[in-house]
Write a structure and sequence with these properties.
single chain, 155 residues, alpha+beta, Nuclear Transport Factor 2, Chain: A, six-stranded mixed beta sheet, 37% strand, NTF2-like_dom_sf, Nuclear transport factor 2 family protein
Length: 155
């Protein structure tokens, strides 16, 4: 591992950066989301910001990634993440975080204007962070839905 900081300090910093991603999304705070992602030359080079939301095509570059989060935030009334199975590995100036996103979100409002039902889902996520002069910043996010079988399917 490069650098002079102790490993425990790096792990804690990466965990905090990962938590900031989900806190920004829960709060619908695009400014906070902007701070989470790599910026400048780190964001738009060949290995720049990349994101795959479940069911979406690959998004490359900081602008495209942040537009996707703006769209998600604009169309999500309520979302909460309960992260489980979180692992952090650090290799030099790159950190890999894997986790299960247990997601609770609000469904569409009823015709009477009442809030819709809460819906749950699971996504397995891989988040790559890069150490920058501004600290650990998200470089890549990839989320894959965990599909659950229906009662009629053969196992």
């Amino acid at each position: 591992m490069s650098g002079s900081r102790p490993r425990d300090e790096d792990v804690a910093a990466v965990e905090a950066a990962n938590e900031a991603l989900y806190a920004a999304l829960e709060a619908g705070d695009l400014d906070a989301m902007t701070d989470v992602w790599v910026s400048g030359a780190d964001a738009d080079d060949v290995q720049g910001a990349v994101c795959v939301h479940p069911g979406w095509p690959l998004l490359s570059g900081r602008a495209a990634v942040l537009r996707s989060y703006a769209l998600i935030m604009a169309n999500t009334d309520y979302i909460q993440f309960f992260l489980t199975d979180v692992t952090v590995e650090i290799h030099g100036d790159v950190a890999l975080v894997t986790c299960t996103e247990n997601i609770l979100s609000g469904g569409e409002a009823g015709e009477d204007g009442e809030p819709g039902p809460l819906l749950g889902g699971k996504v397995v996520a891989t988040n790559l962070f890069r150490r920058t002069s501004d600290g650990w910043r998200l470089w890549s996010h990839h989320g894959s839905p965990v599909l659950t079988g229906g009662g009629d399917e053969d196992e």
